[in-house]
Design goal:
127 residues
Length: 127
């Protein structure tokens, strides 16, 4: 009896946790600087890696548009590219002062636009 009760409780707990999971986007745009801590010194070059993911698998040859800007400012540069075998690299450039450099990437899939962004911090302790 106790074993059946424990099994029922475990099944209910699993059911509720599955229902409580947030809905995931069908398409996801992932953008990240090459350094895992996202921190750079003034004058260092940053590269952003881009992936477009559908159902947790990278999409090959996804067309994207991108823009690089200082945080909350107009774009410094823009461009287009495709993700090739599943990912692509964007030369983000650098900043010669403390601040944040943001890369925003967009792709269109089935008539909908999806967006992702990554940020690199330049000398953040001096902001």
């Amino acid at each position: 009896m106790r074993t059946k009760l424990a099994a029922l409780f475990a099944a209910l707990l699993f059911s509720f946790s599955a229902l409580a999971q947030p809905a995931q986007s069908y398409i996801r745009v992932e953008v990240a600087p090459e350094r895992t801590d996202w921190v750079y010194g003034a004058g260092e070059q940053v590269k952003f890696t881009v992936r477009v993911v559908k159902n947790n698998a990278p999409l090959e040859n996804a067309a994207v548009t991108w823009e690089i800007s200082e945080d909350m400012m107009p774009p410094l540069k823009t461009g287009n590219l495709t993700t090739g075998k599943g990912s692509a690299t964007i030369e983000g450039g650098t900043m010669n002062k403390p601040g944040f450099l943001r890369c925003i990437v967009r792709t269109e899939y089935d008539g909908k636009t999806y967006e992702g962004m990554g940020t690199a911090a330049f000398d953040p302790e001096q902001i």
